[in-house]
Design brief:
This protein has 19 helices and no strands. With 406 residues, the chain is an all-alpha fold. It is globular, with a radius of gyration of 22 Å.
Length: 406
């Protein structure tokens, strides 16, 4: 009964979203149907790809910690570290409704549906063309990998949701320079620490952009007008104090989230080599023995992260699905490269591209398996689609036409 009520609530929420965003009402409806159908298939018919050990592990721990009282559930928070915070949240759900993988999967479904809405909003802010935004939303709504990670009990869809919401506010800040948008973006990026600390580096990049802008504004005012720009001064002082705090407590903070070995060069190479495991491991020639080799191999590793598995890496059927995803990434990046002048001339699109490249390099350092790489690159896929969307002239049922970009 609880599951039926919850599903009806999700259907009602989806209808509300469709009414609120009438221009993409059908996109929202199809996104929900595809994701909820995938969740049902995974739970009651056949286990979907990548919905095995990790997904069942997250759900099992949520039940293990949530089958008692609320106090007992909260006592297990961060017991296994930040990577298991998703299970901690799931345990709170199970305390209230009892064990129900369907409800936990349904929460992922609705998060995936809202990602479609955020893609539509972000695309409008970047390109100013509703036709392009609708195309972006359709692609995200029907893309198989995004449907998969929006229908299973894993963190990916929530990480993507926070990234999209953060990038939406980054773009809004770039257009309006409102501090509130910068603050919201930083909060969204900071919340990644609780789900996947590696994604939180997007906040580091944004802080760098903020410092560049407000330093330029501060010194321009000081030199040209012989006056102090107070808002710029306050922003600069805030980040300087924040940097001082982090520099003093950086070791304990990094160790607390379990990423200390990734930030020390003496352990980075060994830590990265451990990731080359399983049937989907990268070729052995990509394993570095020294820091210099590690740096030299970053470029080929970047290509493997974004576009693998390649034909010569295929050893079983599931790898073919990964290869098809890699082909899509190749096509999207070829579109971006061939239209780079248009993209770099659009400040908002260029910002998105900078974040995509930066995050790709970060994950390139840590990933040594194209199965894991596929999972991680799915997080940036909606943003890649937004950047390339104006130049996709014929996808599915879209007619070939030139799009007027504002």
């Amino acid at each position: 009964m609880v599951e039926i009520i919850f599903v009806l609530f999700l259907v009602g929420f989806t209808i509300w979203l469709a009414k609120k965003y009438k221009e993409i009402a059908w996109v929202i409806a199809i996104a929900f149907v595809l994701r909820f159908s995938a969740a049902l298939i995974n739970l009651y018919v056949v286990t979907l790809p990548d919905a095995g050990i990790d997904a069942t592990g997250f759900e099992h721990n949520a039940w293990l910690w949530g089958k008692g009282s609320l106090t007992e559930a909260t006592s297990h928070f961060f017991e296994y570290g930040l990577p298991w915070f998703y299970s901690n949240l799931g345990s709170l759900v199970y305390v209230i409704v009892g064990r129900s993988p369907l409800i936990l999967s349904s929460i992922s479904v609705i998060a995936g549906v809202y990602c479609v809405v955020l893609v539509w909003k972000l695309s409008i802010e970047v390109w100013g063309a509703h036709s392009v935004a609708k195309k972006s939303a359709w692609l995200v709504a029907v893309y198989p990998i995004l449907i998969l990670y929006s229908s299973i009990t894993m963190r990916e869809v929530f990480i993507t949701l926070l990234l999209l919401y953060g990038m939406l506010n980054v773009v809004l800040w770039s257009k309006t320079r409102k501090i509130i948008n910068a603050f919201i973006a930083l909060m969204a990026f900071s919340l990644h620490i609780l789900l996947h600390p590696g994604m939180a580096v997007a906040g580091v990049l944004f802080i760098g952009l903020l410092l560049l802008y407000y330093n330029k504004r501060f010194f321009a005012s000081l030199i040209i007008n012989s006056s102090i720009n107070v808002p710029s001064f306050l922003v600069i002082m805030f980040f300087l104090l924040l940097g001082l705090y982090i520099s003093i407590y950086s070791a304990s903070l990094v160790d607390a989230i379990g990423y200390g070995s990734w930030l020390r060069m003496d352990t980075l190479v060994d830590r990265a080599s451990i990731m080359y495991t399983g049937e989907a491991a990268y070729p052995s020639w990509l394993i570095a023995d020294t820091p210099m080799q590690f740096l030299l191999l970053l470029v080929p590793k970047l290509f493997y992260y974004l576009f693998s598995p390649f034909l010569w890496d295929i050893s079983k059927l599931s790898h073919v699905l990964g290869m098809l995803d890699g082909v899509v990434f190749i096509m999207l990046f070829l579109l971006i490269y061939s239209h780079r002048k248009y993209i770099t001339s659009n400040p908002q699109a260029f910002i998105l591209l900078v974040f995509v490249i930066f995050l790709s390099l970060v994950f390139t350092i840590a990933v040594g398996n194209f199965g894991t790489g596929l999972r991680h690159r799915s997080k940036i896929l909606p943003i890649v689609i937004i950047i390339a969307a104006p130049f996709i002239y014929r996808v599915l049922f879209f007619k070939k036409k030139k799009v007027k970009l504002e």
